[in-house]
Amino acid sequence: MIAPLVIGNWKMNMLVSEACDLALSLANNSFEGVDVVIAPPFTSIYPVSQIIKESRLGLAGQNFYSGSKGAYTGEISIEMLKDVGCSHVLIGHSERRQLFNECNENINRKVQLATQMGITAVVCVGETQRQREEGNTLDVIKDQLSKALVGLSGQSLAFVVIAYEPIWAIGTGINASPAQVVETHKFIRKFLFESQEFSENIEPRILYGGSVNAQNCKQLLCEEEIDGALVGGASLNFESFYAIIKSCVGA
Ligand code: PGA
Fold first, then answer.
1. Which superfamily does 5-247 belong to?
2. Most-buried pick from 92, 200, 243, 246 (CB within 10 A)?
3. Would you say the CB of residue 91 lies under 6 angstroms from ligand 1?
4. What is the pTM of this model?
């Protein structure tokens, strides 16, 4: 069985001193049986990497540009993320799709680049409220997944994690119900095995994200279909993030 994975997406929050304080509190605790990754904003990635380097915590970038290097003012590359110790990177988060017009083609290119570098691509997919109400959730997920993963080799797929994040649940305080998440995760798992080159030795991890907090984490993370969580707001506070991590192992 694969260990659960909990990722804290700090988004555009925290100054360097705040990020370092939180990273230190996390690094000073043990997470037996759970893989924990934090995704600080770019300005804090390097100092945070120095704080957590002796710990079991992983580090993620929240984004990168798909060029390798050169005249791309304001962007950073996947090599730069690797250089500062990132093991993971978020790709296709709905905020990037919606606010920064990220398209499926670009997402696919980024998944290719990250996985070729041995960095785990956390590929985010999810439907809007309207798409759910109209009964289109699974079609939307299938479309996003197939376009994000097209052309990936079996070897690259070993470096892919899927995060199911319904857009209506992100930052709203309204989480998807365990039944809704389980239904979608089962669909994603089946889709991956049927249409991709996931071999029997690769067990894809499928995380849930969307208003996961210290109160609802237990009922979500005790589900066998849910391999962990991508946490936004509740990852900014040590107590709530730690409670979510602990709930993965039934504590
Ligand atoms: P949230 O964000 O936990 O604040 O809803 C989740 C995410 O955007 O990954």
1. Aldolase class I (3.20.20.70)
2. 92
3. no
4. 0.96
